[in-house]
Amino acid sequence: MPPRFSFSLNATDDKARTGVISTPRGEIRTPAFMPVGTAATVKAMLPENVRATGADILLGNTYHLMLRPTAERIDGLGGLHKFMNWQRPILTDSGGFQVMSLADLRKLTEDGVAFKSHIDGSKHMLTPERSMEIQRLLGSDIVMCFDECPALPADRARIADSMRLSMRWAARSREAFGDRPGHALFGIQQGGLEQDMREESAEALREIGFEGYAVGGLAVGEGQDAMLGCLDYAPDMLPADKPRYLMGVGKPDDIVGAVKRGIDMMDCVLPSRSGRNGQAFTRRGVVNIKNARHANDPRPLDEHCTCPACTQYSRAYLHHVYRANEIIASMLITWHNLHYYQELMQGMRDAIAAGDFAGFEKRFHETRAMGDIEPI
Known about the structure:
Shape: globular
Distance between the termini: 62 Å
Mean pLDDT: 96
CATH class of the largest domain: Alpha Beta
Oligomer: single chain
Structural class: alpha/beta
Number of domains: 2
Low-confidence stretches: none
CATH architecture of the largest domain: Alpha-Beta Barrel
């Protein structure tokens, strides 16, 4: 029998947790940040370079891959791992969020969502059963339930209807997923910022039973204070012996705040998207490499960083290639950002294991508050 998916906790520090998710394709150290490979690639990065930053797992996007090149084509070519040359674990989202936020002329029913492709206008139907089929064809290790994610703010009735529809879809997703040893299905808690609805959702998910649980419906316009306020209670409603995944988050201070509140996994396009836009994340905050102040600066982005952008290139060079629209600018700044994010995760894992997460958090915020180094 193939190895099973499992999760073990190694240490806790108040609500912060560190552990290991074990899959047949390798271990995932938690807390874990998953770089986003929307269309079977982390933009501007080679897979081996993503791995070199410390990433244990990538995220793939069901909506985009089902439209192009199609899940059936990827399956015929040996599955997503082979297709994108990433042999470690992959998590795929369900497609629900993109259908709601990107697709035009969509129609939501009890059965699922009918929509037109943003690429060519072709018509598609995404249901819990079809989402499970697509993710099976892709061959992902962690599969997400099909759900609806309303933007916030939204009125209480809208949030309640959406959450209960998502819970009915979760049950259908669980049935359609079937028994797949070595693969995991995660349920997604919804309920907006309504604590009682979050509890109702968590209770429904616990009754269905999943290998892991996500906190969904955050980072959709509610602001950081409201998100962290929800995370003060939402993760505690989910089983403590299973991984907890906060979807679509986020900025470095969002991530530290989420781990403090018991989150084990996160993903976000921010480090790669910001890299392409000339924004570098450093210990002392965000550096906008496009600014003229960097044009004659021989120093690295971050003198303490060991990524290639910092050890082999100057701010002046990065400023030049960004302003010249050279592809290497996106490559180097994205590499730096992903390295920074993975270093942040390792720092939190070490701090939790040492029982010093509060000290880590204090140093993190103090260093960021210093701001960028003075211009030359």
